[in-house]
Amino acid sequence: MWNSMKKAFPVTLPVLAGYMFLGIAFGVAMKARGLGMGLSISMSVLIYGGSFQFAMIELLTQAFAPLTITFMACLIQARHLFYGISMLQTYRQAGLYTPYLVFALTDETYSIVCSGAPKETEAFRWYTAVSFLDQCYWVLGTFLGALVGQFLPMHLLEGMDFSMTALFATIVTEQTLTSLAEWKAGRMPFSEVLFSPALGGCCTLISRIVIGRENFLLMSMMMMTVGFAVYYRKGEHGA
Amino acid sequence: MTDGQRILCVLTGALVTLVIRALPFVVFRGERRIPAFITWLGGQLPHAAMAMLLVYCMKDMDFSHPSGAFPMLLGTLVTVLVHVRFRQTMCSIVSGTATYMLMIRLMP
Predict the structure, then answer these.
(1) Residue from A165, A176, A179, A207 whose CB has the most chain B CBs within 10 Å, to mutate
(2) Which of B12, B67, B36, B83 lies closest to A165 in space, CA to CA?
(3) Which residue on chain B is closest to A229 by alpha carbon?
(4) What is the DSSP string of A183-196?
(5) Which among A23, A82, B50, B106 is least surrounded, fewest beta carbons within 10 Å?
(6) What is the pTM of this model?
(7) How far, rounded to the nearest angstrom, does the alpha carbon of residue A160 sit from its chain's CA centroid?
């Protein structure tokens, strides 16, 4: 395993940078909301999903709403279904490694493993090494963030939790730029570029106005589900 | 929320995440075909979910006084513009967060 780790390490360097940074941001943001290191690290070990963990910070400071958390987890993590489907054939044969590989299949790990293991390596060990190293970076970043958050005075941290808003703004921008490039290349109709982000944004905005500050996500997610079903039926995708 | 409830939330989140990650391996054993709607939804959901989260993060904006909304709007705008220009996630997050932190200190 040690050998596989050494071979996998270089390819995980971009993830090291990204996960350390986001992990630290997560640890600090948790601390800035008065949530402790134990909780932050448990989340990074047990959940291990960046955007969902960031989204949970807010929910953990509000009234207890397990149903909203379940819905939110489904919505944010749904994309993992497709990583799973794409790694199905490969990971299925990994034997004892399969459960961990399936658990640790995050966006970034998927972006590395989807192109396959290098020929000269033992494939399943290499996949496991990549997945494990990535999670180590994430947990280590979280630990450092929570630690830094502990020593910095509260008033300095104020506003640091904006990093989660900034993360989502960055992802939305990146997704939109990618879709626009697809549209320009003629691979996607323009309506498709705008539909999903507009649906997500508008449903949430409307629910916020109608329901108020607390617990409006559930309504937003239901509206989105209906929106998707109607759009799919009406569009050229319909059977 | 009590600490116990927080732990319960984290466990719920972890369980749902694990179920979602494992689902394809359980459902699509053998040669079972994946429905077209599911494949399509897989491409669309991430876009909708991220836009939802962005709006959700901005839920506490208060338009009754300038400092209630301006720092957040400016911070988000800077994040987006820096990202369009450089497309470096860390760069965008740092500049947006720095802008926000500066603004809430300048506009108490």
Answers:
(1) A165
(2) B83
(3) B37
(4) HHTTSS-HHHHHHH
(5) B106
(6) 0.79
(7) 19
Predicted confidence (pLDDT) per residue in A90-129, tens digit: 888 888 999 999 999 998 898 788 777 888 788 999 999 9
Give pLDDT tens digits for A183-209.
Answer: 999 988 888 899 999 999 999 999 999
Which token pair is A122? 């033992």
Cα–Cα distance measured from residue B30 to residue A153, given in angstroms and rounded to the nearest whole number = 56
Q: Under DSSP, is residue A22 helix (H, G, I), strand (E, B) or coil?
A: helix
B55:A102 CB<8 A:
no
CB contact burial A222-234 (16+ within 10 A = b; e otherwise) = ebbeebbeebbee
Q: What are the pLDDT digits (tens) for A206-231?
A: 999 999 887 788 888 889 989 999 99
User: Measured between CA atoms, how close is B23 to chain A, in angstroms?
Assistant: 7
What gap in Å lies between CA B83 and CA B79, rounded to an integer? 6
Q: Do A216 and B59 touch (CB under 8 A)?
A: yes
| Domain residue ranges in chain A | 2-157, 162-234
Handedness of CA A145, A148, A151, A157 (dihedral sign): negative
